[in-house]
Amino acid sequence: MKIQTILGISLIGATLFAGSANADVRDIRIGVDVPYEPMEFRTPDGELTGFDIELGNALCAEIGIQCEWVVQGWDGIIPGLMARKYDAIMSSMTINDDRRKQVLFSDPYFTPPSAWFAPAASDIEMPYPQTLEGMTIGVQRGTLQDNYVTDNFGDVADVNRYATADDMVLDMDAGRLDIVFLDFPVGKATLIDSKAGDYKVIGEMITEPKEYFGDGFGIAFRQRDEELANAFNEALATLKDNGTYQEIYSDYFEAK
Amino acid sequence: MIDLHGYGPRLFEGAMITIQLGVLSLILSVILGLLTASAKMSRSWILHRIGTLYTTIIRGVPDLVLMMLLFFGGQIGINQVTDWLYYQFDIDIFINVNEFVAGVLTIGLIFGAYMGETFRGAFMAVDNGQIEAGRAYGMTNWLMFRRIRFPLMMRHALPGLSNNWMVLLKTTALVSVIGLSDMVRVAAEASKATREPFTFMLIVAAIYLLIASVSEWGFAKLQKRYDVGFGESN
Amino acid sequence: MESLTQWIQGLLADNTIFTLQTLSYYGEGLVTTVQLVFLSLVIGLVLAVPLAIGRGSKHRWIQLPIFFYCYVFRGTPLLVQLYLIYYGVVFIDGIQDTWLWVILEKPFVPALIAFTLNTAAYTTEIFRGAIKSTARGEIEAARAYGMSWWLMMRRIVLPSAFRRALPAYGNEVIFMLHASAIASVVTIMDLTGAARFVYARFYAPFDAFLFVAAIYLCLTFSILYLFRYLEKRLLVHLKPSGQ
């Protein structure tokens, strides 16, 4: 702790940008890690889109503020919030106790299960430590799936950790991975829907144990921005009542 | 013609970021290098120690590790300070170390150590007689630095400087790992999306070679200028 | 052994980050880093010797390709070379069905190839400089003895060139150690990979990266001292004598 404070003080001299902002509910910036289809990704011409982006914009409109999206890699996304690079994170972030120590979460706005995905030809039936022995498992670094796989399969299998879900899919296509573990909607969009017949879901949807899988996706704020979090919670309740939420939801998660 | 799948403009922006990053880090590293060289040559043992500690640590740790330490750690460190200010004094400041700033700081810091060695050797190579002559003319220290020591030193420092710049240029690629959209990151994204790694990576390699060749030419010109008065054979 | 484990456990009782599990990540990372760097240096060295000789050849069609290889691999970032090889091998048609895929499937071998090609290019240039600076008199003496070209290379030119190349090669070894940190980008759990894992899991950048920086510092110093020792032993004839 002491070392961190000293380093912190010495680093303050090394920063270039300084300005000020007040603590009321105001126009904000939201951090997001792309691509994570269909939750958040870019169109080929660089526009951000996805479930999080559309719901986030709807929430901001409901509150009556302007929101700007800031793209940030996953492994720096919480520090970025602390460093005020943005004021909220809306990037498929699962609410769990570890993160609650760092940030303040909104009410969950979406609760996806995690699932295992493997090539269609794979003969794995159920992913247990015995059945995955000696295999190569892909996860995204620092996600709850990473923690779950590391603790339960790390001793028997190779775990490849990727900076983005994209990198993981690429290595899956290349045949470098036997099986991957990720949020079900993301896996469904990137592995099942866009490559008909190449991949399949193995076993059940996984939501337990809670110590890993937490309570769904939440918007993260700095601990002290309670007002802001409350504003988003109210807006979320309104959108769920008036059907806007359902509209966006069916755009992304229901068969067309 | 090569099909860039619409990534052309972003690749160009990425190349611009690479160049900006390189040039800004170079400037920072030259400043740090001059300071380090002075510290190491100074009579004060504290300055000497600090200079030595700096060059030793920097040259002992991988660039990527230093970059991550500064980028990820710098944010949390600053966050702790600003939070403390907020809770203690209700002062709310917004301080932002983005990837670009972290990149410039780290690369500048790393190459400052190497530049320090280059400059130290070059300063020591300056003929003492020249300095004595300056003193005899009654020049102040600053004037002597500007008119005599710096230009003469540069002649000896340029080969090392040019070498450091070439290495620095390639080091900029590492910022793509911490998330800055330099040309390597754009090319990596493009190769993943289009499944054509050869196209994009080879283009990026060619751009690096082009920048290197242009700078080599530029340094040769500079060397000619600083060599004035020393003859061909020297 | 058991008391040692207990001692470490006692030492670590107060912190939540450096558990035996995370320390074992760092330990495995250390092994991977050392393997990767050592193997690429050894193979690179073996490649560099003939390349350096060829680089000085009078035949254009030997000299030019080697020059071009060195120019490209020294002029572009290692990260680009790593991406090219790691992602590139996948797109060679039908490679997944050959025996080659067994070794290319894991990230270790593609990274090893990239590192080896990179260090071989730098080492070639180092040796070329050393070979070029062989004293003319030595070569003339060898010729006068009627040595064949090969014998002269083996007995006269290369041994003294190796010695002269030693300081520069020491720098290259340290450079390779530091460059190897990018292996973590292609999922290899080397030292840096272990640090990134610990950072992502505990959000503790200072603990994760300062610890790994200290390990790298120790490795760098070990290499430095090894080369100082070698220089002392092998370059003794270049020191002023008669004292």
TrEMBL record, chain A:
Positions of the Solute-binding protein family 3/N-terminal domain: 27-256
Q: Which domain of life is it from?
A: Bacteria
Q: Which coarse location class applies to the principal site listed for this UniProt protein?
A: other
Alphabetized, the UniProt keywords read:
Signal
Q: Which Pfam families match?
A: SBP_bac_3
Subcellular localization(s) per the UniProt record: Cell envelope
Span of the signal peptide = 1-23
Q: Which GO terms describe its cellular component?
A: cell envelope
Gene3D superfamilies for the chain: Periplasmic binding protein-like II
Family annotation (InterPro entries): SBP_3_CS, Solute-binding_3/MltF_N
Family the entry assigns:
Belongs to the bacterial solute-binding protein 3 family.
Q: What is this protein called?
A: Amino acid ABC transporter substrate-binding protein, PAAT family
What is the protein's species of origin?
A: Onishia taeanensis
Q: What lineage does UniProt assign to this protein's organism?
A: Bacteria, Pseudomonadati, Pseudomonadota, Gammaproteobacteria, Oceanospirillales
UniProtKB/TrEMBL annotation, chain B:
> What positions does the domain ABC transmembrane type-1 occupy?
15-219
Q: Name one GO biological process term.
A: amino acid transport
Task: Please classify the protein's predominant subcellular localization into one broad category.
Answer: membrane
Q: Which residues cross the membrane?
A: 15-39, 51-73, 93-114, 156-178, 198-219
Record's keyword terms, sorted: Amino-acid transport, Cell inner membrane, Cell membrane, Membrane, Transmembrane, Transmembrane helix, Transport
Q: Name one GO cellular component term.
A: ATP-binding cassette (ABC) transporter complex
Q: Does the keyword Protease apply?
A: no
Supply the SUPFAM superfamilies for this chain. MetI-like
Its membrane topology is listed as: Multi-pass membrane protein
Q: Which InterPro entries match?
A: AA_ABC_transptr_permease_3TM, ABC_transp_permease_HisMQ, MetI-like, MetI-like_sf
Signal peptide range? none
One annotated GO molecular function is: transmembrane transporter activity
Q: Where in the cell is it found?
A: Cell inner membrane; Cell membrane
Per the similarity annotation, which family is this?
Belongs to the binding-protein-dependent transport system permease family. HisMQ subfamily.
Q: What is this protein called?
A: Amino acid ABC transporter membrane protein 1, PAAT family
Automatic annotation (TrEMBL), chain C:
Recorded hits in CDD domains, A to Z, give:
TM_PBP2
Pfam family membership, one:
BPD_transp_1
Q: Which SUPFAM superfamilies match?
A: MetI-like
A Gene Ontology BP annotation from the UniProt entry: amino acid transport
Q: What GO CC annotations are associated with the protein?
A: ATP-binding cassette (ABC) transporter complex
TM segment ranges: 33-54, 66-88, 108-127, 173-196, 208-227
The membrane topology term of the UniProt record is: Multi-pass membrane protein
Q: Which residues form the ABC transmembrane type-1 domain?
A: 30-227
Main location per the UniProt record: membrane
Recite the UniProt keywords alphabetically: Amino-acid transport, Cell inner membrane, Cell membrane, Membrane, Transmembrane, Transmembrane helix, Transport
User: What NCBIfam families does the database record attribute to this sequence?
Assistant: HEQRo_perm_3TM
Q: What is the recorded name of this protein?
A: Arginine ABC transporter permease protein ArtM
Organism, scientific name: Onishia taeanensis
Q: What is the lineage of its organism?
A: Bacteria, Pseudomonadati, Pseudomonadota, Gammaproteobacteria, Oceanospirillales
